[in-house]
Amino acid sequence: MRQKTRILVIDDEPVLRESLQAWLERDGYSVEAVASGGQGLNRIAKTRFDLVFLDLKLEDIDGIQVLTRIKEDDPDTSVVMITAYGSVPSAVEAMKQGAEDYLLKPFEPEELSVLIEKIITHKAREQENIFLRTEQRERTRFESLLGQSEPMQEIFSFIEDISPTDSTVLITGETGTGKELAAKAIHSRSHRCEGPFVAVNCGSLPEQLMESELFGYEQGAFTDAKQSKKGRLELAGTGTLFLDEVGEIGPRMQIDLLRVLEERSFTRLGGTRPIGTDIRVIAASNKDLPEAVRAGYFREDLYYRLNVISLEMPPLRKRKEDIPLLAEHFLSRFRQETKKEIEHISRQALDLMMLYDWPGNVRELENAIERAVVVGKGKKIQPEDLPISREPGLNKEGSLQEMEKVHIQQVLKQNDWNISRSAKILGIDRSTLYKKIRRYNIR
């Protein structure tokens, strides 16, 4: 901490200035000292200092004026005023203008050390609190959903709109696009947020097991039912029931689920007493449910009951400008988990990620970064650390240029050859995009 803390001393008394610099350097701080307010402001304009010791009475500029300039340029810079006994009222006024504290001449090195430690500790706690508040705000706002692209900003806005309602929501999108995260975000923003969020993966359970998991059962309902058990519907209470892969449930369960949505009650297996339910249902599917309805695999009436509000999660290939943000987020997480000193993602690795289409979406990107952190040897993630570098053609000479050409063609086509919008998605300026169009002879 001390080596990272930069201190500037502004005092026109040579003995005090030199003594103060010597004391601070002895304590391990990085220190500069100047003899006038003008010199101090010049240094501050060129270098950021964490802490400034400022004499209240300077020959060229009044100390209060210097303090005001410092705070205007960088409000986070801490300032301690140095003053004589007769100027204490002025020092108190300086604290009202933003100074952290004041030192009364003469002072001892021990007094100086205690004051600096107090200021550094206070600033560290403030920064930690800001970080924790920001982290908490992000977590409660949209859970782990991340994105600065236009498609994701639209998703965030839509979640804000629909969360306060009790309407059933159907979330669609490819595997790995974050459908469950979106469901959790809706729950956390709703008036049901104090209740549980209960998830059921409909695609991983056989129909008979799905029935007992969802509705629960009474003692003796079947051979292994030694005692009664609540199902997920009861466990959800007044919270949210999330039905993932809802397109996988069988015909009988579709009827049972439709009855729950219509009557707001159910019966445990082996039971006779209807149990009322006050839950919000959010369903998700990566299947084309309208096509499943047309093919006779999914009930039309159940589809419309689930699809009161529809939310489609965009695939990663349609929001590639989010890749750097997501990759850094996953890098930070896996770096902490593995305790590895991988600091950055190399430009070459990032270029490779931007060219890849990510058929597995955000989940595939997350897995790729985890692998890269585990197998990486240096301070940066390199292309060879990524599993996508083993995709056919990606490791051949000249293939990156060919993939870049294909990617630019796709982006231009998807955006109806709107150069400004395409350049923004590609993360380059308009002139660079025009050069690449000419270079690759894209038409």
Keywords:
443 residues; 5-stranded parallel sheet; 14% strand; 16 strands; alpha/beta; Rossmann fold; elongated
Cross-sheet strand order for the largest sheet = 2-1-3-4-5
Report the portion of residues in β strands: 5-15%
Calculate Rg over CA atoms.
Answer: 31 Å
Biggest beta sheet summary: 5 strands, parallel
- State the helicity in percent bands: 40-55%
Number of strands: 16
Q: CATH H-level name of the largest domain... which superfamily?
A: P-loop containing nucleotide triphosphate hydrolases
Would you identify the regions where 5 or more consecutive residues have pLDDT less than 50?
Answer: 392-398
Average pLDDT works out at: 86
Query: What is the CATH architecture descriptor of the largest domain?
Result: 3-Layer(aba) Sandwich
Tell me the structural class.
Answer: alpha/beta
Give the CA-based shape: elongated
Topology-level CATH name of the largest domain: Rossmann fold
Discrete helix count? 18
What is the C-level CATH assignment of the largest domain? Alpha Beta
What's the number of structural domains?
4
Quote the distance from N terminus to C terminus. 56 Å
